[in-house]
Amino acid sequence: MDKNTAKLRAKELVAKMTVEERMTQLLYNSPAIERLGIKEYNWWNEAAHGVARAGTATVFPHAIAMAATFNPETVEKIGDVISTEARAKYNKSVEYGDYDIFKGLTFWTPNINIFRDPRWGRGQETYGEDPFLTATLGSALIKGIQGDGEFLKASACSKHFAGHSGPEGMRHGFDAIISLKDLHETYLPAFEHTVKNGVTGVMGAYNRTNGEACCAHSYLLSKVLRKDWSFDGYVVSDCWAIADICGDHHIVETRAEAAALALKNTCDLNCGETYEALVDAYEQDLVTEEEITECCERLYTIRHLLGEFEEVRPYSDIPFTTVDCKEHREFNLKAAEECVVMMKNDGFLPIDKNTTKRIAVVGPNSLSKTALEGNYFGHASEYVTVADGIRRAFKDADIAVVKGSNYYREKLLDHDGHGYLLSDGLAAASTADITVLALGLDCSVEGEEMSNFSDDFFMKGDRRYVNLPKTQIKLAEAVCDVCENVVVVIMCGSAVDLGEKVNRKAKAILHAWYPGAQGGMAVGNILSGKVSPSGRLPVTVFSNTHEIPAFEDYSMKGRTYRYIEGEPLYPFGFGLSYADFSYSNMKILEETEASLKVSVDVTNKSNINAAERAQLYAKFTDSRTVTPHFQLCGISALTLDAGETKTAQFNVDKYWLKAVLETGERVSPDGKITLYAGGHQPDSVSNKLSGYENEIIEL
Question: Considering only the top CATH level, what class is 581-698?
């Protein structure tokens, strides 16, 4: 069904409703209207990395791990699997009359906020710190979820619009002060691109941005989203965010006024209960029937595009047997392998898969299922932890597995949690030839607004520091003292500094993020050399001594690879391989007013097959305004046989080759633009760590 037909049918159906009925349909848990044959519908569903909160589903690597793949094709396929399983589950839910929460086809994903600060607990839900990477991978997931058929396979929703990335404990009353330059250069581009690539929904944020509540924002919603970008999909509030307008934000006094303010600024759907007060707002002439009708029509356009009212529902032939099936689990493993970033390797990895040596797997994430999941997850039918994956990868090895520490608590007396575990970890490491330290966090300490959880390290889901908790650093340093061969595997949702001693003494360091249900097997396959690592850092890894700006400061000065002051430990875009690649013959193939086509030859100089992630960066010089150090503007995922050469091609939208003025306007820069192609960012730290410099061409 084309959109115009869906709009017409929605208009005809909504016209049959009373104004009171239309108001009820603006709530996320929309009731049935039996006289019109309309079933109840719950709009609230989640699918950040698999169908979430509704029973069994494939649990893919979390969004930050997807970002590390630097591979839109993989992310799009993840989206396609999500919508396949969503339809399979939806078909059965409808058959059995289950219209409860998390059973519909409107997914409030992806989270395309910019991961501007590594301390943010929800950064795990994003695609990292770069606007281009976020726009590209967010659009890929949306394309996979929504499909390209006559009807929407499912509906995706870009969130949280806009200027939302912590602190979690302040989000309901926080005012993010953002310059127009930063807003249009960093915080809005991913939203703009997903809108122009057809996303059907946009979710407003909890916070205020520059004084206005995001779910009732005259500039962001009415002007930028609806007018400038011509968005005609639906806007939904974050859950109970409209209540904050008269609550924590104190912008208006009553629920009716809050509901009216949001509705007038084109927020169609309320996740929450405040739109129950639309009845009062209507009676007080705060909103008109036309405004209510327009919102309702947009919502019913989506429901028609999903095929809800067709005599034969689209995709009704997708069977339940597709849910977390063998094919999806195999693809999930491949995706998890792509997301692992090797940040350090002193030539120690890979480990011989036929080794009979003793391997100790030590750390709080050794046997952790929750560290595979991240947050916003479903329940897989099989989980492979790091210890499980190492056992399967090294079948002849003598393997010991101990916890060694908790995530952050260390107590000499803890009957229930056995809080002091260091000696156990050291005993295992000291008797091993190789120790794999499985460190990191999980959703019990890192995530969304943990309102009752704060201590000297965590603050309501966020971290106060970029290192790991002292308990784990103590374990890691002690293990490095008793075992010569230590490999660190980090599993968490952000960048972490392991400290000078561990960074220096560990033979290798892998970041596996929250890698999904098959994540442990992916780690085992990389440690054994079955797979060469190809992941790239979607965030900058700062040293714990690096002075990051205050968490509440939304200026980009000093933030991310684009505006960092000083040097990082490991730069955005960096990642090692077991193979050795070279770049040559960079050239411009074609140029138009709107785009640029660039190519570069990539050669695998090694005797193993391996994947590579070619990247294209732009640098502006002599610009009339402040510009980033570098700006990622192209990515190309390649797989090369030993000795093979392939050509990486980048189709560059010149949107990314513009400078942004203080007014927020994008303009052609006054000076020259230099393009850099390679397997990493063209900064000095990346050059040193990788051992080569990027190819260069000037426009």
Answer: mainly beta
